[in-house]
Amino acid sequence: MLYIYLGIILFLIIFILWNMFEEKDILAQIDAALVLVPLVLRLLLIK
Amino acid sequence: MTIKKIKASKTTAALLQFCAVLCIFLLSQQFLSMREPEMIYKGPGVTAVKMLSEYYSDIAGTAADTEVYVLKGEKPGPSMLVLGGTHPNEPSGFLAAILLIENVKPKEGTLYVVPRTNNSAFTCTDPQEGEPMRFTIETDNGPRWFRFGSRATNPVHQWPDPEIYIHASSGQRLSGSETRNINRSYPGRTDGTFTEKISFGVSEMIRKEGINITVDLHEASPEYPTINAIVAHEDAMELASQALINMQIEGMDISLEPSPKNLHGLTHRELGDYTDTLAVLMETSNPSQGRLRGRTDESLVVNGIDKFYEMADEYGRLYVPFDEKGHPIQERVARHITGIAQLASAYSELGLGGSLVIDGIPTYMDIAEGGLGSYLAHKQ
After folding, report:
1. Residue B204: pLDDT over 90
2. Which residues of chain A have a CB within 8 Å of the CB of B159?
3. Which of helix, strand or coil describes residue A5?
């Protein structure tokens, strides 16, 4: 179950990173950067 | 110039991603520091330090494994297990366990002390509670820090939570987050969750060592009805009653409550039902975990002073008296230590099978009147 959950997180992170380069609104880019922080911490099983 | 006027580009995306990585790095340092345990020093009575995995090997090498301090007396006799750190956001039980490890010496019988029963829960704090990651006690050898953790297993070690937690042996249904609460997971099982494996390890230790008395040390918020109390399994009621009378004779305000038969997963219910131990649980008053508290910081954890609880007391909303002196940690540790001493003494007085004689246990007054620091001043 944990690995499925981590797989979903990895999937989201990849799409967020890709979307940041396509995004034309700076506020949406900042939002995306903020969202990355907890997701990466969870993917690395730090928090 | 507003932020909105900055044109988003691949360069801004890369810069923001760099900032995110920097934040992740800095936060990681802080969160990973929670995995650093404080030192516990072996006192004169410690004869061996085992790991819980010696009783249940599946947890070896995981965050579920935890130290078991064995204090074996010179003469054989009954044995007592003290569980500290079941809930690491209830620090007096953890400190009482450390105080025992570092100070006492059984003369007859054996004392087993597990200071960090849910070791995983010491590696995080509860979300959205604003709790400190550690607290400091002033000792005779200078300040000494201790970890303040979470009520439940770190989600890093057990995730995701189910919508509803079903207790395995009873079918009791609780909210999903209780699946990581070790004191809802007893007696545990081998094919269960990370938390259920820890409680199975504790149950196995009690069975294999034939432990006679088990004392689980807790704290509760001042507005919670079960407070300043001993909760006892029906088999332990005689023992707890005798200890309670002795504590009340000493002037301590404490009550005795029977373990509810329909509340499952707790030590005082399941260890009594599934092992031969006499299971009791003790509660003291801890404002740092209450819902009515103000700022949650080290001072609240250690000094137990909170103006909102003083107001709540004036309105008659609490189950313990609460004045400007609050409920400092030395008072809460003193209550636990006195309870342990009286339970050991009651076991002998009632003639339940030999004498459990423990030397070096400080009295309530020794600790409560500012002496906690001298008992936690490591001698090495």
Report:
1. yes
2. 2, 5
3. helix
Give the number of A-B residue pairs with CB atoms closer than 8 Å. 60
| Chain-chain contact of B20 with A26 (C-beta, under 8 angstroms) | no
Instruction: Report DSSP letters for B90-155, one per residue.
Output: -HHHHHHHHHHHHH-EEEEEEEEEES-TTGGGGG---TTS---SEEEEEETTEEEEEE---SS--T
pLDDT of B39 above 80: yes
What DSSP letter does each residue of B192-246 carry, written as one string?
S-HHHHHHHHHHHHHHHHT-SEEEEEEEE-TTSSS-SEEEE-GGGHHHHHHHHHH
A34 in B contact zone (CB under 8 Å): yes
**Contact state of A47 with B31 under an 8 Å Cβ cutoff:** yes
> Helix or strand or coil: residue B313?
helix
A25 and chain B in contact, CB less than 8 A: yes
Quick check: A37 and B23 CB within 8 A? Answer: yes
Domains of chain B: 43-375 (3.40.630)
Overall pTM > 0.80: yes
Mapping DSSP to helix (H, G, I), strand (E, B) and coil, where does residue B279 land? strand
A1-19 residue pLDDT tens: 788 989 999 999 999 999 9
Pairing of strands B105-114, B75-83: parallel
Residue-range domain boundaries for chain A: 2-43
pLDDT at residue B1 above 70?
no
CB contact under 8 A, A26 and B6: yes
Asked if the C-beta of B63 comes within 8 angstroms of chain A's C-beta atoms, the answer is no
| ipTM attached to this prediction | 0.94
Q: Which residues of A touch B27 (CB under 8 A)?
A: 37, 41, 46-47
